[in-house]
Amino acid sequence: MTRMQAAKLGRLGLVITLSLSFAYGLLLLWVHCRESVVRSRSEAMYAEFLKLHPGETTKADIEVLRRRFTSSLTENVDCGVAECEYTIGNVWGYSRWFLLTRFAHDHMPSSQLTLKTNGNLLSSALFYVGVVVPKGYGTREERRLLSSVPGYVPYSSGAYQLFGRASLVSALPELSRDTRLTEKPDYRVWSPSGCMNCVAIYVSALPDLPKAKRAQVFDVNFSCMTQWSICTDKEDIMPTAGREKAKESASAD
């Protein structure tokens, strides 16, 4: 190879490297901008959720809320004779581009607000928030289970969804006997059974739970949507409720 040929190859290699770096930079910028938009809308929707009062909030109040997000979020209204269900927010699921965008730490953030009315008044409200955890990342608990449970398949063996749900309800869910000693009179911290390819934490609270306590137990870490590091566990997505749930699990063991 002549010196001229080597120089041409060197320039070609430099051009390819710069082009790939530029393309990756654009991918990072696009992913971060989209995540930031989703986070901003989610935080705004969550702030409205905290203001809701089952038994007091009216359909007229809900219409005002809907109009605020109509132009930027998908929504659906399903009404029967006496009851209506309003859904505002993103649709859960993996993007077709996730195999590419995951290299830019795309968390695929999403959120959803579901409101149910009976007659003219709000009967319950639920706020979901979630991110996608890529293959190779797992929960804190699985590190212990890997060494103590033969044949245990860890979450880190594949991608999964991490999400939290805060809900205002008229009656708290009935939980198993193992958790009754730690139940609170006005709220519950629990996890759904049979959650396939997901890690979830739920907090259900009665409408009369004081505002300060409501904000505390419903605390959502929206940084999971935009930060470079990966949120993988219940304590990451809902810190206060996640820590409480972890203590209850440790006490049960």
Structure description:
- With 253 residues, this protein is α+β, with helices and mostly antiparallel strands.
- Helix content is 39%, strand content 22%.
- The chain contains seven helices and seven strands; from the N terminus they run ααββαββαβββααα.
- The protein has helices at 3-51, 59-69, 98-101, 140-148, 211-217, 234-237, 239-252; strands at residues 75-79, 83-89, 110-118, 121-133, 160-168, 187-190, 198-205.
- It has a seven-stranded mixed sheet with strand order 1-2-3-4-5-7-6, covered by helices on one side.
- A hairpin with a 2-residue loop joins β3 (110-118) and β4.
- The longest helix has 49 residues, at 3-51.
- The radius of gyration is 23 Å and the shape is globular.
- The relative contact order is 0.13.
- The model has no long low-confidence stretch (mean pLDDT 85).
Order of helices and strands: HHEEHEEHEEEHHH
The biggest beta sheet reads: 7 strands, mixed
Q: For the residues shown, what is the average pLDDT?
A: 85
Task: Name the shape in a single word.
Answer: globular
Q: Structural class of the secondary structure composition?
A: alpha+beta
Q: What's the β-strand tally?
A: 7
Placed side by side, the strands forming the largest sheet appear as 1-2-3-4-5-7-6
Helix proportion of residues, in percent?
Answer: 25-40%
- The radius of gyration is 23 Å
Quickly count the helices. Answer: 7
Termini gap = 69 Å
Unreliable residue runs = none
Q: DSSP strand (E) fraction?
A: 15-25%
